[in-house]
Amino acid sequence: MKYFSNLRRTMGPRVDGWEVSLKGMMGIVVLLGLVITSIYWGVNKLVSNDPSLPKSDHKKKKVSRILECASLTRAVASSLRRSVHM
């Protein structure tokens, strides 16, 4: 960031320094985004699918439909009670 600020000061009078520094900083943002994306892709492609790694036996917890309906009913009832009291 200091580099682009100093670069802006050394530009000529007809050059828009903000445009040059903004393009440079946005280029860095795009470049780092591509680096992060490639690291994510590499981890998923090469590390996550490695058969020598142990697999997790974590199973998803099953929530019954009755509990979902009861919690929804309770949430609606409590919000209705709050709006009636106001």
TrEMBL record:
Give the location in the cell: Membrane; Plastid, Chloroplast membrane
The protein here is known as ADP,ATP carrier protein
Q: What is its main location?
A: membrane
> From which residue to which does any coiled coil extend?
none
Tell me which domain of life the UniProt entry assigns to the organism this sequence originates from. Answer: Eukaryota
Q: Which family does it belong to?
A: Belongs to the ADP/ATP translocase tlc family.
Does Protease show up as a keyword for this record? no
Q: Sorted alphabetically, which InterPro entries does this protein's record hold?
A: ADP_ATP_car_bac_type (IPR004667)
Instruction: Quote any Pfam family the record assigns.
Output: TLC
Q: What keywords would UniProt list here? A: ATP-binding, Chloroplast, Membrane, Nucleotide-binding, Plastid, Transmembrane, Transmembrane helix, Transport
Asked if the Swiss-Prot or TrEMBL record annotates the protein with the keyword Plastid, the reply is yes
The residues that cross the membrane are 20-43
A GO cellular component annotation in the UniProt record: chloroplast membrane
How does this protein sit in the membrane? Multi-pass membrane protein
